[in-house]
Amino acid sequence: MAARAATGAAGARALVRRLKQTPPPPGPFRPGFWRSPIRGPWLTSVFGLVLLIGIPLLFVTGMLSYAAYNPGLDRINDQTPDKGLLGFYLFDWPTHPYWLYRLTQGVHVTLGVVLVPVLLAKLWSVIPKLFEWLPVRTVAHGLERLSLLMLVGGVIFEFVTGILNIQLYYVFPGSFYTLHFYGAWVFIAAFVVHVCLRLGRMSRALRSRGLAAELRTDLAHTRPEPPDPDGLVPQAPAPPTMTRRGALTMVGGGSLLLLVVTAGQSIGGWARNTALLAPHNRAPGSGPNGFQINKTAAAVGVNPAHLGPSWRLELRGSRPPLVFTREQLLAMPQHAAALPIACVEGWSTPDQHWSGLRLTDLAALAGLPDAGSVLVESVQPPGPYASVVLRGNQIHDPRSLLALHVNGADLSIDHGYPARIIVPANPGVNNTKWVHRLTFRT
Ligand SMILES: Nc1nc2c(c(=O)[nH]1)N[C@H]1C(S)=C(S)[C@@H](COP(=O)(O)O)O[C@H]1N2
Ligand SMILES: [Mo]
């Protein structure tokens, strides 16, 4: 037995030795294949530094985005109920400041888009590493390669799923939220390992050349960096066709362009006209209901007959259910609040002037003035976004409304007529439209 294992191990060692002696296959695995004279640790580290700042911000705003749904409150709010320990950080999402989600989600989406050129440039700059030969040499080397696979695979997966989602291409095999959430954890784990392993090398590389001097260097004076142990600097550099300044300008300009064509959707006003990449940039119409609509009533299968004179609001709590017509609701004291709609897709509206009934007053009417949560149900056929559970702090904020009016007019059908939820700092998706039942709970 032992003898056979020993010969087996010796055989494996001999095989590895032989493999190490075989030359790499032709093409990208050959060191001579990659010839850009500006590729090297300094350029890689400049892009790396930008990502080192940007990615943690993307991760944190992404995790906040998940917390904002109050997934721990009720299963119907939760897109990833099997997350286990990954939900350790969840907290009660606040209602102050009222623009909180508009900011965090606007930053998440805009930053994600703006970092795309930097990410592509970073991947380009390290591409010889991805074609290392042999792919796996030792166990330690194998583990390092696996972490790189998780890093590169993870980052591409997160950017692709995120961008498809904001462009409204729902092509995912499964829920976008689940994929993007689990993908984020896989990626961030690999990112932390990568940063720990490379931070020293990165800061040395950054100190090896001055940015200001590099920005003054023209093509005639563009030289390769000294050879590096990672093999980023080409062994047989081609003559330069672009300066490092040119590469940085191209990437920075690309990011700036993406910023201009994206950020407008989260800023609103005239800036929305520059948001060419944003699907919800399309003219929202004019008048009091002239602001962005996510899904129209028709698009989600709301039956218009359920929104007419037969519509009732049902209030449940500690008493037998109460039922109100819209006229009866309008005869009750009305309250106003100026609040935005801010969607997970990154777009948001400026503050709109809503009026209607305070959720806290409705809780009292239902016999539960200290209600700890409320199940909101719409007339929409059961499915995603047809219902939601809101938390006590959201019910009792005086700006939280069951809105009947917006900007002085009746809600339009597509903005949720006869009644919709509007709660400060709430993700758009939890501001349910076409509400017909509120069930308050202790
Ligand atoms: N019943 C119901 N309410 C809903 C939705 C929905 O699909 N069904 N979409 C939500 C989403 S994702 C957003 S961003 C907001 C958008 O509100 P608006 O269309 O009035 O701007 O409504 C929310 N309310
Ligand atoms: Mo949304």
UniProtKB/TrEMBL annotation:
Residues annotated as transmembrane: 42-69, 107-127, 148-170, 182-200
One Pfam family recorded for the sequence: Oxidored_molyb
Keywords: Membrane, Transmembrane, Transmembrane helix
Oxidoreductase molybdopterin-binding domain residues: 310-441
Region (Disordered): 220-239
Keyword Phosphoprotein: no
Annotated InterPro entries: OxRdtase_Mopterin-bd_dom, OxRdtase_Mopterin-bd_sf
Record-given protein name: Molybdopterin-dependent oxidoreductase
